[in-house]
Write a structure and sequence with these properties.
The complex is a heterodimer of chains A (about 80) and B (about 250).
Chain A lengths: L2 H15 L20 H15 L15 H10 L3
Helix pairs in contact in A: 1-2
Chain B lengths: L7 E5 L4 H12 L3 E6 L4 H9 L4 E6 L8 H12 L2 E6 L14 H28 L6 E6 L3 H4 L5 H21 L4 E8 L12 H10 L8 H12 L10 E4 L6
Parallel strand pairs in B: 1-2, 1-4, 2-3, 4-5, 5-6, 6-7
The chains are: A mainly alpha (about 80), B alpha/beta (about 250).
The structure holds NADP nicotinamide-adenine-dinucleotide phosphate (NAP).
Chain lengths: ~80, ~250
């Protein structure tokens, strides 16, 4: 599974568990308009840390990405 | 084989004093308790053997090493699975008049009593979230009555303990939607290593001031935490439970 696929799968899972309806997941979708609120995004970051062992936010990233595309790019740049 | 149904709980400073009492209590309620402290103790080793129906485990760890907290919590998560609960109990009780306190002592108190519990909480909450927090969760921060009353010679310590109260209230709101409760327990003076410096006259004065004419004990604090961790405690969050035999009444 690519990092992007893993992120999209986790977003589906979090939305399902938190009973949120996801918008179509395109690169330019703004995360705050994705249907996930800030708590859901925090859960997403925790779940990705667990499954991918990547945590850009503990590694010093100070700004939360705005769009889904930027979010995926951030994780790709911290992989490996 | 580890029992997947057993709920994992972290108790910092669970090697003696209040933390040990809390660890034993939670194990008796069926939790798998992980204790962090710098040194193992005979009493904790005995608790590991006799714990039932839950379990007690120990990992040596210095919480002052806040950069290593992420690593230890993640390794416990990997080994045992997601956390259900956390008791931030480890703390330093260094006293002294503020004007005479070395700056590095102020820093040390804040690091161990404030930065460490907040950082531990951050990573335990992540573990709870990664696990889906399906049945909610429990966080208890051990504050102190001096957070509200103050005590001469304990200004920095009192400040660290009231900071945990603000932390408790805000985090209780933040995690409420996940069914995770966050509370503080505020003990009055309890006879442990931390308070062994109390003189007999001071002890008598504390007894006399309390409504019940005695001090609360380790088992009383453990019972309060046990209650908050039980099903019965599920609708109590973002508050402070004072256990002091009426010392601040
Ligand atoms: N006793 C009281 O009257 C009273 C009243 C109100 C609130 N409290 C609070 O209750 C909590 C427990 O107090 P207590 O009286 O049980 O204290 P205690 O008997 O001194 O025990 C403190 C525990 O914290 C651990 N600890 C201390 N420094 C540590 C470090 N750097 N890293 C990891 N673990 C560390 C100790 O183990 P190691 O030394 O081996 O690391 C021990 O397990 C504290 O937060 C205290 O402020 C106590």
């Amino acid at each position: 599974m690519t990092i992007k696929e893993a992120i999209l799968a986790q977003m589906q899972l979090v939305a399902e568990r938190q009973k949120k309806t996801l918008a179509p997941l395109t690169d330019d979708l703004k995360l705050l308009e994705s249907g996930l609120d800030s708590l859901c995004l925090a859960i997403l970051v925790a779940a990705l840390d667990d499954t991918l062992d990547i945590d850009p936010f503990s590694a010093g990233t100070s700004k939360f990405p705005v769009t889904l595309g930027e979010f995926v790019q951030l994780y790709e740049s911290h992989a490996g | 084989m580890r029992d997947e149904r057993m709920r994992n709980v972290l108790v910092t400073g669970g090697s003696k004093g209040l933390g040990l009492g809390i660890a034993i209590k939670l194990a008796s309620q069926g939790f798998r308790v992980m204790v962090l402290a710098r040194r193992d103790t005979e009493a904790l080793a005995a608790a590991r053997v006799s714990a039932t129906p839950g379990e007690v485990h120990f990992r040596p760890f210095d919480l002052a090493d806040t950069d290593a907290i992420a690593g230890i919590v993640k390794s416990l998560h990997t080994e045992f699975g997601p956390f259900y609960g956390l008791v931030n109990n480890a703390g330093l009780g260094t006293g002294g008049l503020l004007s005479a306190m070395p700056n590095h002592e102020i820093e040390r108190l804040i690091r161990l009593n404030v930065t460490a519990p907040m950082t531990v909480t951050k990573y335990v909450v992540r573990s709870m979230m990664a696990g889906g927090a399906k049945d909610g969760g429990r966080i208890v921060n051990i504050s102190s009555v001096v957070a509200a009353t103050g005590y001469s010679g304990l200004s920095v310590y009192s400040a660290t303990k009231s900071s945990l109260v603000g932390f408790t209230k805000a985090l209780g709101r933040e995690l409420g939607p996940l069914g995770i409760t966050v509370n503080s327990v505020a003990p009055g003076f309890i006879a442990t290593d931390m308070t062994h410096g109390l003189t007999e006259p001071q002890r008598i004065a504390i007894d006399r001031r309390s409504a019940l004419k005695r001090m609360a004990e380790v088992s009383d604090i453990a019972a309060a935490v046990g209650y908050l961790f039980s099903e019965d405690g599920r609708n109590i969050t973002a508050t402070v439970m004072t256990v002091d035999a009426g010392g601040t009444a």
